[in-house]
Specification:
single chain; mainly alpha
């Protein structure tokens, strides 16, 4: 065996070359993302359980007085809670898939890049903002402040959608 055979292989940036100690440490550092990924999934589970609890009570109210308009607002609040839980789930699963390991997911949840994760978040946030607006319309006895709320939600939604559209145009 020659002197060259005993020398460790250093990272040269070429494919197939083994990384050095710092490179190996950096490869393992990706597992740090497991902490927020698991945390977000647990937060999602907690939110979904809370939403389910609230849904049961709303269902009881619907059976008690189906003509009560407040029940519609309560139904939307429960829907909002479930959507927020879905956002937490998308972020948690997305972080896991991006940084820790590939997992078997339906196409709608699969995340290959940070841009995919951002797109899914934007889509869900726009939906949550819409539900929140309708919730506020039903909850307010008058029109006080409704126009300002609508303008604020429209502005935020417009910025999110514009961000997404411009990003897609730059890719295409």
């Amino acid at each position: 065996m020659g002197a060259d055979d005993a020398a460790p292989v250093e990272a040269t940036g070429e494919r197939g070359a083994r990384p050095g100690p710092v490179g190996r440490a950096m490869e393992r550092a990706r597992f740090v993302a497991a902490v927020p990924a698991v945390g977000m999934v647990l937060l999602s589970l907690g939110t979904m359980l809370w939403a389910t609890y609230k849904a049961v009570w709303v269902a009881v109210d619907v059976v008690g007085d189906p003509s009560d308009l407040d029940v519609i607002a309560d139904l939307l609040k429960v829907t909002d809670l479930f959507l927020i839980g879905i956002v937490f789930l998308i972020v948690g699963v997305g972080l896991w898939e991006l940084f820790v390991e590939d997992i078997e997911l339906p196409p709608g949840l699969s995340v290959r890049t940070l841009s995919d994760l951002k797109d899914k978040l934007i889509d869900t946030l726009v939906l949550v903002l819409g539900v929140s607006f309708v919730e506020q319309v039903l909850a307010r006895p008058g029109w006080d402040g409704l126009l300002e709320l609508a303008a604020s939600i429209a502005l935020v939604t417009g910025v999110l959608v514009a961000f997404r559209v411009l990003k897609v145009q730059r890719r295409g």
